[in-house]
Design a protein that fits this description.
The protein is an all-alpha fold. It has 8 helices and no strands. The protein folds into 2 domains: 75 residues, Serine Threonine Protein Phosphatase 5, Tetratricopeptide repeat; 108 residues, Serine Threonine Protein Phosphatase 5, Tetratricopeptide repeat, CATH 1.25.40. It starts with 12 loop residues before the first helix and ends in a 9-residue tail after the last helix.
């Protein structure tokens, strides 16, 4: 049965929503299987240390998080970071994106002490490579401010925002899926740069 069969006036809304969720979960499972197949092919053809391997791990992290498997998501994000750092060097812009993605997953799980140094590292790279007024600096600065507020350091968080109040992080754990989407969108708009260029 398709979703459209429930999409009519007077239809059973609970059955419609249940079916919509089931179809969404199936789509995520299909995407995850496709990424695993792609990962196998890329690893065989380009090697385990190629940056495209890191990209696929990052996609798998996102899917695992959306499928409510945060520990697996963090493990994939860590692999993405490790592979890309080894391939491109710590000062590469794409490494900063992977660092920020892992930090956001950690913050979503309440691991603020682990997220903070990663966000600081990503922020420093973005400031140096993308520039202090870049969208990346603003985005990661906001994430870091929320983590600092959650750690009970609102004054330090305010300094990141020019004195503006920062919402503490029961709210810093906002929509992590949307945060990961925003990071990916920012990354797609950038050409590869490193501190060495």
């Amino acid at each position: 049965m398709t979703l459209k069969e429930y999409d009519r006036p007077g239809g059973d809304e609970n059955r419609y929503l249940t079916r919509a969720l089931a179809l969404a979960e199936a789509a995520l499972a299909d995407a995850e299987a496709a990424y695993h197949r792609a990962l196998t092919v890329i690893r065989q053809s380009l090697g385990d240390g190629h940056p495209e391997v890191a990209t696929l791990y990052r996609h798998l992290a996102d899917l695992a998080y959306r499928r409510h498997r945060p520990a697996e998501a963090m493990a994939y994000a860590q692999r993405a970071l490790d592979v890309r750092t080894a391939a491109l060097g710590a000062g590469h812009l794409d490494v900063a994106f992977d660092t920020a993605a892992l930090a956001c997953l950690l913050a979503a799980e309440g691991k603020m002490d682990e997220a903070e140094p990663l966000l600081r590292r990503a922020l420093m790279t973005f400031q140096t490579v993308a520039g202090p007024d870049s969208d990346e600096v603003a985005f990661v600065g906001e994430e870091l401010g929320a983590v600092l507020a959650a750690l009970g350091r609102p004054d330090e968080a305010r300094t990141l925002h020019g004195g503006a109040p920062v919402t503490p992080s029961g709210d810093a754990r906002r929509d992590t899926g949307a945060t990961l989407d925003a990071l990916s969108s920012l990354q797609l708009t950038r050409s590869p740069k490193t501190l060495d260029e």
